[in-house]
Design brief:
Elements: E1 14-16, H1 21-27, E2 32-37, E3 43-47, E4 66-75, E5 80-88, E6 92-97, E7 106-112, E8 120-131, E9 134-141, H2 144-161, H3 183-202, H4 204-210
Antiparallel strand pairs: 1-2, 2-3, 4-5, 4-7, 5-6, 6-9, 7-8, 8-9
Helix pairs in contact: 3-4
């Protein structure tokens, strides 16, 4: 997190994520890495000149969970259980409760994150991990308005932990040239330019057409 902005929502709260495929491994050799916005979920690539990152383990989440303490009500097919949220992100949370849930189960959850306001409702979540009295929930279905309310909380938590001194970025307009912010576009332009230069040097007729001498 820091200076990078998400090309979709314009916020600074992004995290480097796992490289996927041969192309991203090759791009990392020239300092182009994949990132994911922690709020809107946009995955993008960006140039981080002369920056090398530690190789991430396969278990690392693409969304950072931040610590907090908030009450939660979890509804399963068998029971309704009260517990406490100890970690939260846009994709899931860690819950402590007296009666652990079954791994792989689908549940509903109500997160009491905002004092004096109704809880944030998660329509469906999958229990991804169970350790003693702690469960990890992955949100699979959250209504749009509930996701916005969840985003308010996560934004505050992330900014207070990482970027309290950095003003939040403005919403980006849906202009025709927003794609120019992408590192992929500039990489493609560089490759095409190098290809044109090579052809101009190697093939005489291409050189003449390129510089407008004769076609």
């Amino acid at each position: 997190m820091g200076g990078l902005r998400c090309p979709k929502c314009g916020r600074h709260i992004v995290q480097r994520v796992h490289r996927i495929g041969v192309v991203e491994h090759v791009l990392s050799a020239v300092y182009v890495y994949p990132f994911r916005c922690q709020l809107c979920g946009r995955r993008f690539r960006a140039l981080q000149w002369r920056t090398r990152y530690v190789v991430q383990t396969a278990e690392r989440r693409e969304y950072e969970r931040v610590g907090l303490r908030a009450q939660v009500t979890v509804v399963s097919s068998r029971d309704t259980v009260q517990g406490e949220v100890t970690e939260l992100s846009m994709e899931g949370c860690t819950v402590t409760m007296a009666a652990p849930l079954s791994e792989g189960a689908t549940v509903q959850a109500e997160l009491h994150l905002l004092p004096g306001q109704r809880p944030v409702s998660v329509a469906a979540a999958v229990v991804r991990s169970v350790r003693a009295t702690t469960c990890g929930l992955h949100f699979t279905r959250v209504r749009a308005e509930e996701r916005i309310r969840l985003g308010w909380v996560v934004t505050g938590l992330l900014r207070s932990q990482h970027d309290a001194s950095v003003p939040e970025g403005p919403e980006l307009a849906d202009g025709r040239f927003r794609y120019l912010r992408s590192a992929d576009v500039w990489l493609a332009v560089a490759v095409l330019g190098m290809l044109a230069l090579v052809l101009a040097m190697v093939i005489p007729w291409f050189s003449l057409c390129t510089w407008g001498v004769s076609c």
